[in-house]
Structures are given as structure tokens and as C-alpha cells.
Amino acid sequence: MSVLALKNVSRSFGPIEVLHGVDIALRPGRVHALIGENGAGKSTTMKILAGYQPPSSGQVLLDGRPVGFASMGQAEAQGISMIHQEFNLAEQLTVEQNIFLGRELKRGPFLDKPAMRARTRDLLDRLECRVAPDRVVSTLSNSDKQMVEIAKALLRDTRVLVMDEPTAVLTRAETAILLRQVRALREAGTAVLFTSHKLDEVEAIADDLTIMRDGRVVWTGEAAAMDQHAMANAMVGREMSDLFPAKVSTPGEVALQVANLTVPGFSRDIGFTLRRGEVLGVAGLIGSGRTETFEGLCGLRPATGDVRIFGQPARIDHPWQAQSLGLCYLTEDRKTRGLLLGKGLRENLTLQALSKFSRGLLDTGAEERALDRAIADFDIRGHRGALVGNLSGGNQQKLLFAKTMLADPQIVVIDEPTRGIDIGTKQQMYVLIRRLAAEGRAIVVISSEMQEVIGLADRILVMRHGRITGELGADATEDAIVKLAMGVATEREPA
Amino acid sequence: MSDATAPRRIRMTVIGPILALVLLVVAGALMNPNFLGWDNVTNVLARSAFIGIIAVGMTFVITAGGLDLSVGSMAAFIAGLMILVMNSLVPSMGVGIPVILVGMAVALLAGLAAGLLNGILITRLGIEAFIVTLGSMGIYRSLVTWLADGGTLSLDFALRSLYQPVYYGGIFGITWPIIVFAVVVVIGEIVMRSTAFGRHCAAIGSNEQVAKYSSVRVDRVRLTTYAALGLLVGLATIMYVPRLGSASSATGMLWELEAIAAVIIGGTVLKGGFGRVWGTVIGVLILTLIGNLLNLTDFVSPYLNGAIQGAIIVLAVVLQREGKAR
Ligand SMILES: Nc1ncnc2c1ncn2[C@@H]1O[C@H](COP(=O)(O)OP(=O)(O)OP(=O)(O)O)[C@@H](O)[C@H]1O
Ligand SMILES: [Mg+2]
């Protein structure tokens, strides 16, 4: 008997129907995985289940009875919690205030701060999260924010927990902790629904599995019946070949030469060389200073050091200076740094290279043609007139990619290129990155996914605590990277 | 959650201000037959011109996520300075067009300098626009009071009659302030809608981080919005001085609020990120028409002008929120 289910649910936004007759049933004490390509309708399905959006037609069944949640408060009162794909935290409040937001503990008319503090500590301990309860949320790393979100959901007595890509921003170790919590919830009889683009996680923990494609359920059943390869095939609707394209690189002239790069507070004495046609991987744990180092390099934060671009000494204090020298940084944080969520696709696409479309006045026609090309080249799916904030996460990522490449940089730093991207698109991205290299561009890929760095890069730098701890070749093993990232072995003295 | 797609959201906020303006015009025509007469129409437009020219500049500042509270006192200070300079030149240069041209140049330069100063303090020192311009508002107001020694600065009498046509004269029965206003509006609309600068303003106002990461020269764009606003304040002052031929500590009082109100009524988002110049024009016209209507009819006391304007501003913002379709 299912605790929460959708029956023949469709959902339209304006004239566009994005869910077509979806059925899904969550059972108590089972973990249900929902997988599918970007824009397949996973988030929308979850929001309807958790009462954040009403279905356009069809029914939501709670304990077998149709319900119409008028508000999310009602769904919550029924023991249904949801963790969204985007963070839903009050950035200016503390961890503790966030966790208890709207359900503060009181003693008489006053807040019972000691009790809340103790509960918060307790919850965070369970998640092995070492963040002080009085830290302001805006100062937390993405993975800590996710832990706070999870703690918030754990606080409520949940019969049904819905999690939209909870592991997208987590490291492996953190993911393992989360999965342990999920198992504990399952033991306690909670019905858990989650999505992830990491199919190994799905294989490891799911009892039930539903696969969606283009707004329809294409497969549902016991998870044990599918291995990762079969899941990937069902998601994309075709036979998936190798995830990573062949590395055919012919390194050309030196494009970027960095020495003694120091980003105060984040990294010290970084040095490396990058040639045209090369893909340089940068691995390391979250917090090892990879993002900050390259933001510093590209003029996005204060930094010192000797940088040469195509042999010429370069002084870069602002991102536009970097861009004019042919160096661009593609952010890992598409929601707050990458895209204008309240604007359309066209405005976002051309923002970084607007001068190309302007001879005094902007040539909107040329912009539209550029959008046509980007939609085709990067396989961006979604309604053309939509606001970017309404695109699915993966399609936002593709748009961000298209936007940066429109500026035609010769040297590109790509930070977490496939965060939140489905496996079919990932494959496309990898092909694309290799193609950019083959065209003679120089590419840096920062990634927390070790498989990705190994599969994609010609050389790999590993960072730890703001320093480069080693350099590995294309034949690097995961083990070797982990050792350098954790500081167990040193293959090269810090430069 | 919203299921707003771009077209729907814009439709609501577009219609709102136009509808309000049409309603006002119809009401006015019904209440007083002179309302749609040539004289009254040109009168309304001319009165709108000063605030209007400033409000066009304000549209860019607000769209880029900024604010400028100092424009009213800036106008007063520029007016005072202009009059002093012109008066002091009369003995050496005599009464003539050159003196007036020098006065105009002083006004534009002073406006540009004042705008740049606001902009530099905001972008280079990173002080809140509200604080910086609150400060400069007080400074300019007090400077003009000091220049006028607490009283009124009057333009040389002979010079005044020479200068007057700039306000009262025109071509084809359309006075100069209206013509200048129209030109400013057309240029402003084009810049906002179809140049990289306008696009950059909206990008910075929607999310400064994103703009920065997209290689937009954020500080330069924001500085430019303040400088352009200052220049436009200078231009408005040039049109305003010949009207009365004097400046005092009461000149340009509350212009900043009227300009900001016009921008908001016109559908520009106060938080920034979206602006439209033609909306601002409608906003200015609405504000001026209310005053004009109250003067022409006697249902409501003209003293209630401020109350009605205030109510309309709040209503406009409420409509904007509805327009974002929840
Ligand atoms: N508020 C909205 N307005 C318009 N279209 C929307 C809205 N929300 C979602 N969509 C559209 O519905 C479709 C499904 O989106 P959804 O976010 O459910 O995909 P998803 O499977 O979660 O993808 P991802 O893996 O990228 O997160 C997409 O085409 C998206 O553009
Ligand atoms: Mg999603």
C-alpha cells in the first residue's frame, strides 16, 4: 500500500505541457529513486508530490485518498518534507535559526534557545557535519548548506521525505553520510524519494526505481532489475556508448604560464603551464581552494603572481581584462553567479559577448540567430521564451556553457562542468570539451568527480589546502588522486 | 510557485500605467472642457519636462540597482551657481548670448561633476547609494542656501529677458522644454532598449555577481549612470532657470521623490534589473496630470495633491507585484 502516489498526473506551464499522465507510488520503508534526463520532469513531479505545485489534471493520493494540498504547510502537516534542488535557506540567519524557522521552540512567550541549540547540535552530529549552530548560513560552503537542509527535514517527523538532487553538491564522503541517514530513515519506516544523476548512488540505495523521459514514465519497478548501464539506456532512449571520448591531443604552443600565484586566504604559490590543445584537470577536495585559485587568476578576486598569456606578461585585476586576453572562467555556481534567472535565454546567452552584437545599437536579429545556434550546438531543451530560472538545472548549465563559449575564449577554465547534468548530456559535454581542445583551445577542468577528471584530462593537478600537492598523467588512478588530495603522499614538492 | 513566462508578466505591468493615464485624461476631459485644450496640454507637458528629464536619468540609475536622492538639491545648487556665474560675467562680457552660453556650460559641467562625485563615492569606495546621495542631498541644499545667504539669488534683470525664451519660446507652438524633454526621452529609450549599455544596466540590477562574472565592467557602467543623471539634472536646470530667473533654498524641493515616483509608476523595478524609459514618461505625466486636474476642478482641494500622488505610487507598486503573477 503506498503512502503517497500520483495517478495520471499532467502539468502544464502556460500552453506547454511538461508532464503527461505520470504515475508514481511511494511505499513506506522504501527508498524510491526517480531518474531521467535534464528537463524530463523530475523536479516538477516531486513538487507536485510534496504539495508545492498543484497538478493540472490527475490526482495526488495520500494513503490512497485523493488530496488537494492548498499549501505546502498542509503537506508538511501530513508529514511530507521536501529538499529542493535549489537551496531554500534564509542566508542571513544562523544555522540554528534556519533549522527551526517557523517552528521555533518556546518556553512561555520566549524562545527556548538552549533547547534549540542542543537539538541543532544533535542533528548536525548525526550528519557528521562540523558546523557551529550559530554560523550565519551565507558563510557556509555549498555542501554544508545541503547538510543544513537535510537537518531541517530530519527535524520534522517525516513520513515521506522528497529530495531533489541532494548529492549534487556533496563530496563522496558526505554522500556516504547522507546515504547512511537515508538508510536509517528507511528502517524507521519513512518513504524516501530522491533523484540523482549519479547512477552509482541509485544502484547502491534504491529499492524502487522510476525512469522518466520527456515528461512520461518510461519504466518503473524494482531497482534490482536494472544495472547502471540499463538505467542510462532507458533514460536517454538509446544505447549509450563510452562516457568519455578518446583523448586525441596534440599540445601546441604554451597558452598559459602561471607562477607564484597566491590568492590571500585561499591558496599559495600555485604554478603550472598549459598548452593549446590540452585539457588540464584540477582535482581536490571541496575546500581545497581550487575555485578560489582560478577565480583569482581570472580577476574575480584579489590575487598576486606572475601570469603569462601566450608568452606575454598579463596583469589581470578584472574579469573583463582576462576576457580581452582570451581567458574566461565558467563558474560552478550557475544560479547566483552564472545566469540571470529572471531574464530570458537570449539576454543571458549574449551578456558576456554583447559587444559582438553591437554596432552602436544591438542587433537583436543576430542575437536570435546566435540563440538558434546555441540551442542546436548545445542541445538546450526548454521553451524558447521561458525565463532562465524556469529551465531545468541541466539546461541552465548548457546555456551557461554556450554563453561563455560565445565570447570565444582561447583559454577556458571550466569549474564543475557537469554538476546536476544527466548522463546523456554529460557525454555530450565531454565530447564538446574535447572538441574545444582539438580546435586548439587550452582548457582547465576543475571537478570533484574523480572519474570525470581521469576520463577527460591529459594531465591532472591535485590541490590540497590551497597548494598543488602533485601532478599526475592521463593514466592516473583514483587512488593516486585521493592520496594527494588527502595529503597521504607527495609526488612533487609544492612549487 | 509561479508559472509566469516572460510575456504574461510584461503584459500586466505594461497595461497598468497606460490605463491609469488614459483614465486620468478621460476624467479630466469630462470634468473640464479646457482640459484637452492646446494651452493646457502644452502647459502640462512643459511642467513635466524638468522632472521628466531628470527621471529619464533616474530610470538608468534605478535599473542598474542604484538610487539618487540628491537630484533636487543638485538642481537647486546648479541653478544658484549658474546665476552667480552669469551675474558676475555681466560687467565684463555685457548682456548677451555668450554669457548665457557660459551659464549653460557651467550648469552641464557642474551637473556632470556632481554626478561623477556621487558615482565615484558609490563605486570606488563601495558606500551604499542611499547613504552617499542622502549626504550629497544635504550638502547641495545647504550650499545653495549659503550661496543665496538664506534668501534668493536673482538673475540680472536684462539677462533674464534675454534668457526667458528658452522656457517660454519654441517652434511651431511647442516650447523648448517640451522639445528637449522629447529628445531626451527618445535617446533614453533607444539607449535602454537597444544598446549594450542599457542591457548591462539591467544585468547589473538583476544580479551584480552574474554581471561581474560575465565580464561586464560593473563599476564603469554604474558610474556612467550617475554621471549621465548629473548631466541631465544640469540640462533640466538650464530649462528651469529662465522660468523664474531665480534660485533659493526651496528650488527643486522634493524633485528627487517625484522623479523616483515617476520611474516606479512607469514600471521600472525599484530593486533594479528591469527598466523602461517610456514608462517613466507615463509616470511623470500621471503625476503632473493629477496636480493639473486638482487645479482645474474643484471637487478636491489642490492641497490634497500630495496625498493622491502618494496613493498612486503605492497602487502602482501593488499592481507591479500582481503583474508578476503569483
Ligand atoms: N515554472 C515553470 N515555468 C515554465 N516551465 C517550467 C517551469 N518549471 C519547469 N518548467 C519546464 O518543465 C520541464 C521539466 O522541468 P523539471 O525541472 O521538472 O526537470 P528535471 O527533470 O528536474 O530536470 P533537471 O535534471 O535538469 O533538474 C522543463 O522543460 C522546464 O523548462
Ligand atoms: Mg530538477
UniProtKB/TrEMBL annotation, chain A:
GO cellular component: plasma membrane
Domain ABC transporter residues, every copy: 4-239, 238-490
Lineage: Bacteria, Pseudomonadati, Pseudomonadota, Alphaproteobacteria, Rhodobacterales
Organism from which the protein derives: Paracoccus haematequi
Keyword Cytoplasm: no
Name used for this protein in its record: Ribose import ATP-binding protein RbsA
InterPro entries reported in the protein's UniProt record: AAA+_ATPase, ABC_carbohydrate_import_ATPase, ABC_transporter-like_ATP-bd, ABC_transporter-like_CS, P-loop_NTPase
E.C. number(s) listed in UniProt: 3.6.3.17
SUPFAM superfamilies, sorted: P-loop containing nucleoside triphosphate hydrolases
Automatic annotation (TrEMBL), chain B:
Superkingdom of this protein's organism: Bacteria
Keywords attached to this entry: Cell membrane, Membrane, Transmembrane, Transmembrane helix
Transmembrane regions listed in the UniProt entry: 12-32, 44-62, 69-89, 95-117, 129-148, 168-191, 223-241, 253-270, 277-294, 300-319
CC terms in the record's Gene Ontology section: plasma membrane
Compartments it resides in: Cell membrane
GO molecular function: transmembrane transporter activity
Signal peptide (residue range): none
Pfam families noted in UniProt: BPD_transp_2
Topology of this chain in the membrane: Multi-pass membrane protein
Protein name as annotated: Ribose transport system permease protein RbsC
Species assigned in the record: Paracoccus haematequi
